[in-house]
Every structure is written in structure tokens, then in C-alpha cells.
Amino acid sequence: MPTLVLATHNRDKALELRQRLEDLPLELCGLWEWPDHQPIAETGITLEENARLKAEEAARHTGLWAVADDTGLLVDALGGEPGVLSARFAGTQATYASNRKLLLDRLKGVPAGRRGARFETVIAFARPGLETLTVKGWVEGDILTEERGLGGFGYDAVFFHPASGRTFAELTLEEKNAVSHRGRAADALRALIQAVLQGSPSSRL
Predict the structure, then answer these.
(1) Single pTM value for the model
(2) Element (DSSP H or E) covering residue 83
(3) Which of 36, 66, 94, 156 is the most exposed place for a label (fewest CB within 10 A)?
(4) Cα–Cα distance between 122 and 46 in angstroms, integer?
């Protein structure tokens, strides 16, 4: 059974990925199981570049298959910010709470009809000696004027999903994964890994 490393030190992300992949014939483990591995600098200028950097470094370090995601929140009224800098919006030592506070501060006075936003996730799948493959997922929503909900992480408490009628922080993990950017990307990853395990020619790059 192949081992797949979830190449993140963010256990919130790992939990969401594991929920979509755990019934595949794979041994799943987190990068924190390699204490000597240091988080790689996310120097890419796109989500895909950062996802590739993290997955490929983890595959080199462990010698195993590895997947890594990079996710951005693109807010219309901010010209697409925070985008690739979403995790570091409030600075290199930013917390989930400080990022949300800065976002709400930057959107003060912006009316409801102009608070549209889009979450995007790119997941890279790296295998030693083979080309890295990528998949994507996204979801549209709106940024509220105040936080709602106690679940989720990151910007979930201010991201309103119209079809659900709730913020991502008000959804269960299963509900969120069924409609979210990361859930959709993880489903595409799942199909890709299944093709690899079955030896599909298109997955041998």
C-alpha cells in the first residue's frame, strides 16, 4: 500500500484532506511525523507555484508520494487581495483572527452588493522521479461584516456561502467539504490518485 504524505504543518488543512481521501488504499500521514522537516518558504507568485514547491520538497525529503495545497481568498472589492498572501495577510506572524480582523477593517463601508469573494485551492501531487500533477477547486461567496460560527478555520467565519445560507464556520466538516474549494480540489485529487493506482496512461507523467 503506497504512503501519501499530507505535506502541511497545518492540521486543520490536513483534517479536511484526510476526510476526502481516507478510504483510498493509501497509508496517510502528516508531515509533522518528520520533525526534522522545516516548513518551506512559499516564494511562488501563484497558488500553483506554492503548492508545487511544498509537495515537491516533501516528496524529496520523505522519498514518498506527497500532496500539498495552497489556498487563496480573492475579494472583489480589494482587487483580488489577499490572494496568494491569504495566510500572511496580517504579516508573517499572522493568526487566523488577525487576518480576519484586517480583512473586515479593509472592507469597512463596502456595501453588501460589493463584498463578493472567491476561495481557490490548488493541490499538487508529487511523486519522486515523476512530473508533479495539479488539480484545482473553487467556490464563490460573500464577506460578511462580522464573524459568524465557531467551526472551521482561517476566513471561514466571515465567508458566507449563499447556497448553504451559512458561513463556512457554521457548517460541519462534512457539510463544508461537500461544497468548499478544498473539498472540490480534494475530490479531483481523489480521482487523479485512483487513476494513478489503476495505472491510467494519462496519470503516468
Answers:
(1) 0.91
(2) strand 82-83
(3) 36
(4) 10
Q: Provide φ and ψ at 38, rounded to 5°.
A: -100, 140
pLDDT, block means (10 residues), the chain with 205 residues: 90 88 92 88 93 96 96 97 96 96 98 96 96 97 97 96 98 94 94 88 52
Give Dmax (Cα) for the chain. Answer: 54
Predicted pLDDT of residue 200: 66
Q: Which residues are catalytic?
A: 70
Measured from the Cβ of residue 160, the count of other Cβ atoms closer than 10 Å reads: 21
Q: What is the pLDDT of residue 204?
A: 53
The full set of domains in the chain, from first to last, is 3-203 (3.90.950.10)
Residue 85 sits at the vertex; the CA angle it makes with 73 and 174, to the nearest 5 degrees, is 40
Burial of 131 (0-12, 13-18, 19+ CB in 10 A): exposed
